[in-house]
């Protein structure tokens, strides 16, 4: 399969001078997802100011994250890292009492070679709270890959399958109602090995996807991450895992190599086509014949008709900053759009193999050439290409959005796709809602006439 | 290592980038890891900037970590030079990459030999100074660079302009209401018949910097950024400067009088054209600015003796404090600043205007202080606005750090005579309106629902009987918590367990005596 992709899909590589968010931004959605966590970003003022500005209002909501701001003494190793972190973590324990503290390593801790992985187990033992270490730094990763590093670290803390079951029986024995309901549930599902999905989603989207699989009598036995750190799913030999986001390649690797899980390689459940393909890849693994998927997908497409008319034959250019680009482009091509370019920070051809092959099939089906995929793009080259191509829509970061708009080029902020609910059949509409918003706005303002607003 | 949730001033490189992107045709290159270029987002979003921000990164990645930047930085500088032909390229590290201690100065030297643009290295210590200080330094550095360059080339034209003229130094991108203040200052100087020689850095061109010394004097509206440049110009070229912030009617008058003095000293004694701005000051203060009249109008009586807390950068916090106290008769219980580097000046300025001074950059300390003081209104930054929301105390934003709503499209200067009007509005609107306040007192407030116990303190052992609860609910919301706490404190002191209406009034009387 991968050979065939290489023949037809080409991935170019540019200079890597592009704008994206620092991967530490993942704390903004992960602290909300994992309710009993506390994220401690070990870094400098630069990191802190980024979080403060990028996350805007959330800072004011007394978030469960903070900076361990390194000062000159820390950098020159005049101060003891262990003692410094200990004081901060004890204070966090006192103020917030989290179930887990997650240290986010930054560029600075990399450069000064602070041994976070070495300090964490000792301190964990000393203060009695689990401490995870995720190196979400800008030296190695872009934006959403931050979540990947956190989940990969978290995978190590998932309990082993059998042990977990025994443990659970002991603690939940008093909850008799829970037990009886569980028996009922068993009848609804096919008897199959456990399936764990990985990727952080808002809880309602997670349950939508679980229900989608339940319709095929497949039971999702857990999510990585769960709503609470204390509810992490059990992993181990014989457990099947499947990713729901394209940027989770490290987590996938960890699950396969360290936790001995079986990875189901599938396209990602973004758009009705993606969701259907995703389910269709999962079903055969458990010996289930997918039921009524075709009809369901068609119904969703039917409900999207108004949006499809708006986007049909419109061209789009993805500058690339959050790794969702291939899945989005694939969905948009299926919607009838023309994709000029798919910029992407990093392309894991193995983890995204199924998605790439679906992209290829979609292009053939819609009779359009396969768009160029540009890894590590160069923003100034891209802007030159955008000026030549004059696409109807550019999906880009906030640094370029306003300047492009002022030059008469319609844009959509890519960051919104990471925060909006875009997964599953149910949310396909939301993706198109986002995509068409600038187009609709443009239509509303059409009569004003001023499209170029720079001298 | 310290625990930090929020910071008042950003890291040093932000200051450097603000200087660079304020000038026309100057490009900044950051030696930084991926993601550190969020300055572009701030500028593009907060200022709603139409142009691409002239700041890019020369990315530091694993390879750079292993082998050093080698040709990368130089290549990136030369590429920018070729693509955009800027007048000047400023290279700066971020906190992170400054630890690498690469010889960026050397890269700059090499690049400047080949490039058509001038190239300089922002000489800023990222662990010693913050955004504001770095901006101040970088501006001085740029000005010094161009004046020295001009001196070397002997294209020197030191003659002052024929008519009185001034430079305005310190108008910046992402500055608090800077654009509006700039417009207001322009108008003021026009009224005074003073020519504006240059405004830097916002919209200025580095090629014109050589003409800075032609002005008669320099104006430094905000002392945070620009003062270093003014001091340099004073030392090297003997240019006088005025660093009073023209904020508030009294400061305005003082500012104009200082200008008058400078103009008259420099006017040739033979020409007999001495200026007298007193009639202008009088006219403006009494009739153009509404603030002086407003303070005397009966509306403002309600504000007499109300307590406030002020926090912000040194310029704004000090000026607003003075306005509140001497122009509006409002009491300032505590005033503070996060500009720790300018404490001497700050303390000197607000001497006698407030009860307490707080110098800190820890927002938690500011929050605790506000909670302790329980003022009727706060004047602070976006952080204090939030603290106010939590404590149910109104807040007017008077200083950076700011949000998008502090970049209004409408005309909202803080400086000049129009500024006095804007500030008066802001102050007045921040307090619960006088009459409304009064009526609330009489009729028991907007919401007469039972109070939900917020249980901030140790209320467990105290019982409020139904009558006293009802009584408490009649107290206007903004004052209720204070009464509740005072009563509880009184009850505890007296060993009373059940709070009745009588106890409440006894507490009130005890407090009054």
Automatic annotation (TrEMBL), chain A:
UniProt KW keywords: 4Fe-4S, ATP-binding, Chlorophyll biosynthesis, Chloroplast, Iron, Iron-sulfur, Metal-binding, Nucleotide-binding, Oxidoreductase, Photosynthesis, Plastid
Top enzyme category: oxidoreductase
Biological process annotations from GO: light-independent chlorophyll biosynthetic process; photosynthesis, dark reaction
GO MF entries: 4 iron, 4 sulfur cluster binding; ATP binding; metal ion binding; oxidoreductase activity, acting on iron-sulfur proteins as donors; oxidoreductase activity, acting on the CH-CH group of donors, iron-sulfur protein as acceptor
Functional pathway: Porphyrin-containing compound metabolism; chlorophyll biosynthesis (light-independent)
UniProt-listed SUPFAM superfamilies: Helical backbone' metal receptor
Residues annotated for [4Fe-4S] cluster binding in this entry: 22, 47, 107
Cofactor dependence: [4Fe-4S] cluster
GO cellular component: chloroplast
Transmembrane segments: none
Similarity section: Belongs to the BchN/ChlN family.
Entry function: Component of the dark-operative protochlorophyllide reductase (DPOR) that uses Mg-ATP and reduced ferredoxin to reduce ring D of protochlorophyllide (Pchlide) to form chlorophyllide a (Chlide). This reaction is light-independent. The NB-protein (ChlN-ChlB) is the catalytic component of the complex.
UniProt name for this protein: Light-independent protochlorophyllide reductase subunit N
Native source organism of the sequence: Callitris rhomboidea
From TrEMBL, chain B:
Catalytic activity: chlorophyllide a + oxidized 2[4Fe-4S]-[ferredoxin] + 2 ADP + 2 phosphate = protochlorophyllide a + reduced 2[4Fe-4S]-[ferredoxin] + 2 ATP + 2 H2O
Pathway membership, UniProt: Porphyrin-containing compound metabolism; chlorophyll biosynthesis (light-independent)
Domain Light-independent protochlorophyllide reductase subunit B-like C-terminal: 464-508
Annotated GO MF terms: 4 iron, 4 sulfur cluster binding; ATP binding; metal ion binding; oxidoreductase activity, acting on iron-sulfur proteins as donors; oxidoreductase activity, acting on the CH-CH group of donors, iron-sulfur protein as acceptor
Transmembrane segments: none
An example Gene Ontology CC term for this record: chloroplast
Main location: plastid
A Pfam family per the record: PCP_red
Role summary: Component of the dark-operative protochlorophyllide reductase (DPOR) that uses Mg-ATP and reduced ferredoxin to reduce ring D of protochlorophyllide (Pchlide) to form chlorophyllide a (Chlide). This reaction is light-independent. The NB-protein (ChlN-ChlB) is the catalytic component of the complex.
Subunit organization: Protochlorophyllide reductase is composed of three subunits; ChlL, ChlN and ChlB. Forms a heterotetramer of two ChlB and two ChlN subunits.
Name by which UniProt lists this protein: Light-independent protochlorophyllide reductase subunit B
Gene: chlB
């Amino acid at each position: 399969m991968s050979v065939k992709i290489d023949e037809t899909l080409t991935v170019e590589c540019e200079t890597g001078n592009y704008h994206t968010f620092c991967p530490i931004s993942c704390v903004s959605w992960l602290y909300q997802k994992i309710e009993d966590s506390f994220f401690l970003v070990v870094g400098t003022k630069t990191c802190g100011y980024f979080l403060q500005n990028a996350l805007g209002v959330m800072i004011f909501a007394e978030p469960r994250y903070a900076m361990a701001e390194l000062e000159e003494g820390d950098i020159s190793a005049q101060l003891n890292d262990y003692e410094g972190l200990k004081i901060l973590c004890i204070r966090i324990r006192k103020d917030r009492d989290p179930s887990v503290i997650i240290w986010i390593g930054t560029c600075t801790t990399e450069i000064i070679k602070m041994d976070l992985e070495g300090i964490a187990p000792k301190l964990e033992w000393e203060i009695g709270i689990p401490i995870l270490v995720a190196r979400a730094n800008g030296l190695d990763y872009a934006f959403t890959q931050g979540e990947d590093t956190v989940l990969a670290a978290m995978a190590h803390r998932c309990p082993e399958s059998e042990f977990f079951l025994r443990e659970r029986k002991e603690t939940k024995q008093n909850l008799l109602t829970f037990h009886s309901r569980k028996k009922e549930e068993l009848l609804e599902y096919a008897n199959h090995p456990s399936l764990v999905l990985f990727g952080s989603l808002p809880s309602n989207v997670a349950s939508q996807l679980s229900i989608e699989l339940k319709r095929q009598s497949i039971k999702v036995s857990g999510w990585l991450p769960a709503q609470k750190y204390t509810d992490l799913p059990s992993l181990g030999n014989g457990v099947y895992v499947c990713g729901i986001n394209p940027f989770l390649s490290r987590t996938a690797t960890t699950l396969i190599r360290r936790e001995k899980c079986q990875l189901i390689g599938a396209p990602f459940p973004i758009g009705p086509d993606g969701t259907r393909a995703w389910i269709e890849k999962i079903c055969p693994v458990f010996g289930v014949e997918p039921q009524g998927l075709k009809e369901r997908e068609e119904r969703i497409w039917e409900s999207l008709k108004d949006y499809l008319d708006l986007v049909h034959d419109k061209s789009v250019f993805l500058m690339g900053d959050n790794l969702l680009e291939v899945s989005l482009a694939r969905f948009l091509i299926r919607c009838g759009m023309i994709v000029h370019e798919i910029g992407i920070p990093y392309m894991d051809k193995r983890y995204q193999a199924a998605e790439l092959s679906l992209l290829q099939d979609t292009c053939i089906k819609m009779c359009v050439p396969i768009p160029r995929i540009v890894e590590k793009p160069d923003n100034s080259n891209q802007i030159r290409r955008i000026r030549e191509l004059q696409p109807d829509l550019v999906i880009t970061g906030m640094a370029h959005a306003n300047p492009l708009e002022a030059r008469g080029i319609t844009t959509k902020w890519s960051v919104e796709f990471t925060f909006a609910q875009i997964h599953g059949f149910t949310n396909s509409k939301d993706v198109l809602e986002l995509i068409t918003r600038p187009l609709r706005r443009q239509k509303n303002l059409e009569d004003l006439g001023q499209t170029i607003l720079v001298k | 290592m310290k625990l930090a949730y929020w910071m008042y001033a950003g890291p040093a490189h932000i200051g450097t980038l603000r200087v660079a992107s304020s000038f026309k045709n100057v490009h900044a290159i950051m030696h930084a890891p991926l993601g550190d270029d969020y300055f572009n987002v701030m500028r593009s979003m907060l200022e709603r900037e139409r142009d691409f921000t002239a700041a890019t990164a020369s990315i530091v990645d694993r390879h750079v970590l292993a082998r050093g930047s080698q040709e990368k930085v130089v290549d990136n500088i030369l590429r920018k030079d070729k693509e955009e032909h800027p007048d000047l390229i400023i290279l700066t590290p971020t906190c992170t990459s400054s630890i690498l201690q690469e010889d960026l100065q050397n890269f700059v030297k090499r690049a400047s030999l080949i490039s058509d643009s001038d190239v300089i290295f922002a000489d800023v210590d990222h662990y010693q100074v913050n955004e504001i200080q770095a901006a101040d330094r970088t501006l001085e550095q740029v000005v010094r660079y161009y004046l020295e360059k001009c001196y070397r080339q002997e294209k020197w034209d030191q003659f002052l302009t024929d008519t009185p003229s001034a430079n305005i130094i310190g108008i910046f991108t992402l500055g608090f209401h800077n654009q509006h203040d700039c417009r207001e200052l322009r108008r003021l100087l026009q009224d005074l018949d003073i020519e504006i020689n240059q405004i830097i850095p916002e919209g200025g061109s580095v090629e014109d910097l050589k003409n800075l010394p032609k002005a008669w004097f320099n104006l430094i509206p905000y002392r945070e950024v620009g003062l270093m440049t003014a001091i340099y110009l004073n030392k090297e070229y003997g240019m006088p400067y005025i660093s009073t912030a023209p904020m508030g009617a009294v400061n305005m008058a003082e500012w104009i009088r200082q200008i008058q003095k400078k103009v008259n000293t420099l006017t040739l004694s033979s020409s007999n054209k001495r200026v007298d701005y007193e009639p202008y000051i009088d006219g403006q203060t009494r009739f153009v600015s509404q603030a002086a009249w407003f303070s005397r109008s009966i509306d403002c009586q309600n504000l007499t003796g109300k307590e406030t807390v002020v926090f912000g950068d040194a310029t704004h916090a000090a000026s607003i404090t003075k306005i509140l106290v001497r122009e509006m008769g409002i009491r300032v219980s505590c005033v503070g600043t996060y500009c720790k580097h300018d404490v001497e000046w700050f303390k000197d300025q607000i001497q006698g205007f407030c009860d307490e001074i707080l110098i800190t950059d820890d927002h938690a300390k500011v929050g605790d202080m506000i909670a302790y003081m329980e003022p009727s209104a706060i004047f602070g930054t976006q952080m204090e606005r939030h603290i106010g929301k939590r404590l149910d105390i109104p807040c007017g934003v008077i200083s950076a750090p700011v949000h998008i709503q502090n970049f209004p499209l409408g005309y909202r200067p803080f400086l000049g005579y129009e500024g006095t009007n804007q500030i008066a509005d802001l102050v007045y609107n921040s307090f619960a309106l006088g009459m409304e306040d009064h009526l609330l007192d009489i009729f028991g407030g907007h919401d007469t629902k039972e109070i939900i116990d917020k249980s901030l303190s140790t209320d467990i052992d105290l019982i409020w009987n139904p009558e006293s609860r009802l009584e408490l609910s009649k107290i206007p919301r903004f004052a209720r918590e204070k009464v509740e706490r005072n009563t509880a404190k009184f009850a505890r002191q007296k060993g009373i367990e059940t709070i009745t209406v009588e106890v409440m009034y006894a507490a009130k009387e005890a407090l009054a005596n």
